User: Fold ATPase from Enterococcus diestrammenae.
Amino acid sequence: MDAKTAIQQGKTALGIEFGSTRIKAVLIDDQFQTIASGSFEWENQLLDGIWTYSLENIWSGLQTAYQELATEVKDKYHESLTTIGGIGFSAMMHGYLAFDKNDDLLVPFRTWRNAITGEAEEKLTDLFQYNIPQRWSIAHLYQAILNHEDHVKEVTFFTTLAGYVHWQLTGEKVLGIGDASGMFPIDVATKDYDARMVNQFNALVSPENLPWQLEELLPKVLVAGADAGRLTEAGAKLLDPTGTLQAGIPLCPPEGDAGTGMVATNAVKERTGNVSAGTSAFAMIVLEKPLTAVHPEIDMVTTPAGSLVGMVHTNNCTSEINAWMKLFREFADLTGMTIDTNEMFAKLFNAALEGDDECGGLLSYGYYSGENITKMPEGRPLFVRSPESNFTLANFMRLHLFTAFGAMKIGMDILQKEEKVEIESIVGHGGIFKTPVVGQRVLAAVMDAPVTVMETAGEGGAWGIALLAAYLVNQAPGESLDAYLADHVFANDHGTTIAPVAEDVAGFDEYVKRYANGLPIEKAAIDHLI
Assistant:
């Protein structure tokens, strides 16, 4: 079926993902190929000490991205987008969107980027004997209780960004299990919130005499392939104010960006994993069994199908690389040099392969915000060297590629060296892998394992949630998500694999020692650079 026919017959799937810097919409055909796309650039704002996005930006961004996609459909295929086979929404995981009985937002959206729930994290982890990261929704709710915030007694529902958008378009207060696992711990046997921990939380906050029980506030948990509702008349107008798109389209469960990354890289089976590297970074490893101990550096979440996953999440990854690239761009413009941005990235990234194995004694922390793994409450991007350091461009670029994965390496060492987790394959995706070979070699050094980048890896999470929407509509009776992906989506996409280079592995291990030893410098910058 060609793209035009797929559009006419509604044999398409739409995925829209709210990333940290871009809202992206992709439309795929019945062969999972992207046939149209749209996007909207946005940035979080620091408002009264809270990283947030406004509701106005959420909706204007969504409408802009969708309209760009619909315009491309019209221009390329001479068809108006009136119906779609299935729709899915995904977004940055976790955070806190709390609503009252009138469905009004009680406080500005608190994103994953906020490191303001340290007390809640510590107390809940101790209570549950289960790691509760600061960015999880339950940590935000409990911290608000600890802070005696007035809004807490008025909460009737709280959810994630993906859950909020889905609710507004369908009327359904539901959440995909992968995203839900970042709100509150999941029992992988029941595929629902852990009942024991829900009861523990209710008992913990009972002295506050709040007019609710936790289970009343949480969205319903759904696994991949479940019916998550249909686009309402109001939802259709909200997505497409022109009125062209018709109501009644089925939606798959809304998911987090970690889950869509796993789907987009075919990493939903045990012993597989993927690493997403963008503004933030995370490694997702599908586990064969629970970990033997509670590790604050490791989040326990799930795949969109509900399998247990060990997640190493870092708040910072490529922002500092992009900042330096912007500086290099300014220098090129100043000299009158004409160079394509992609070419500039390629030249500088490849220079990194010529650097000293351990970056010549240089040190950097690309912390634009706090970093939970290294226990930094705020961010101070920092570059440090000694007079004896080998300060070359090659080492400088190698340094920033290494340091983008510095905090992640600390977490991965716990999984691999302490918990003896075995990994058969890692797939990398995200902007850092657009330049061939370089990002893969660095990540292979971090993981000490082969790293694959697929032809489709650049499609990202919006494509991943589109695949979940297609799975909802097209799954055969009893067909699992991993079978659907392997047999239909990735049957002919084996990607390019790079094995770890011994010198890179040794060099990265040496660099991480410097990284760990230098953390007091970053802490001093936070304390003294106001």
Q: What stands out?
A: The first strand starts at residue 13 and ends at 18. Residues 216 and 416 are 38 Å apart (CA to CA). Residues 267-453+500-530 form a domain with the Nucleotidyltransferase; domain 5 fold (CATH 3.30.420.40).
